[in-house]
Amino acid sequence: MNSDRELFRHTLATLAYRAARALEDSPESFAGFDGTGRTPAQILAHMGDLFNWALSMAEGNQGWHNSEPLPWAEEQSRFFAALKALDTYLVSGERIHAPLDRLFQGPVADALTHVGQLAMLRRLAGCPIRGENYYVAEIATGHVGADLPAPIKPFK
Fold first, then answer.
1. Coil, strand, or helix at residue 84?
2. Which of 142, 48, 145, 146 is nearest to 89 (CA)?
3. Measured distance CA(125)–CA(33) in Å, rounded
4. pLDDT tens per residue across span 32-78
5. Which of 19, 56, 78, 106 is most deeply buried (CB count within 10 A of its CB)?
6. How many CB atoms are closer than 10 A to CB 31?
């Protein structure tokens, strides 16, 4: 596998790690919190759509779908499944029909912004996430699920 694919896959793992931290231990009520016009459930549904779109572009059959949010736990699972599907395609060695830099600047960068929104909304909703030093976090290429290792250096 080439180094561009590996770096892109590591970026997906980083995004998954940060998203999982922004979502972990969030109460069901957080899904409907309306602090900015879009609820966390709507934001997360959009994030899942971003990675379904990225996969469709990678496969060469670009398509977009706006999903209605599922119940909170199901929406989280759908998001991580979409990330996993894209990562699995990248591992397959199949031709990527879209430039990786475009996939990064479009769906990946958008999703990173939304992870920040979710973290900010957690604080506004009164259920903030615990900060940590992400530089030393145990993030591994291919690990794009919600199951996380413990933080190595959480902030107090």
1. helix
2. 142
3. 7
4. 999 778 999 999 999 999 999 999 999 999 999 999 999 999 999 99
5. 19
6. 21
Task: State the Cα–Cα distance between residues 62 and 98, nearest whole angstrom.
Answer: 9
CA distances from 104 to 5, 50, 57, 145 (A): 11, 11, 12, 19
From 2.60.120, 1.20.120, 3.60.10, 1.10.287, which CATH number describes the 3-136 domain? Answer: 1.20.120
Gap between the Cα atoms of 97 and 66, Å rounded? 22
What's the burial of 132, exposed, middle or buried (CB within 10 Å: 0-12/13-18/19+)? middle
Distance CA 60, CA 154 (A): 41
- Distance between CA 7 and CA 15 in Å, rounded? 12
pLDDT tens column, 71-119: 999 999 999 999 999 999 999 989 999 999 999 999 999 999 999 999 9
Which letter does DSSP use for residue 37 in this model? S
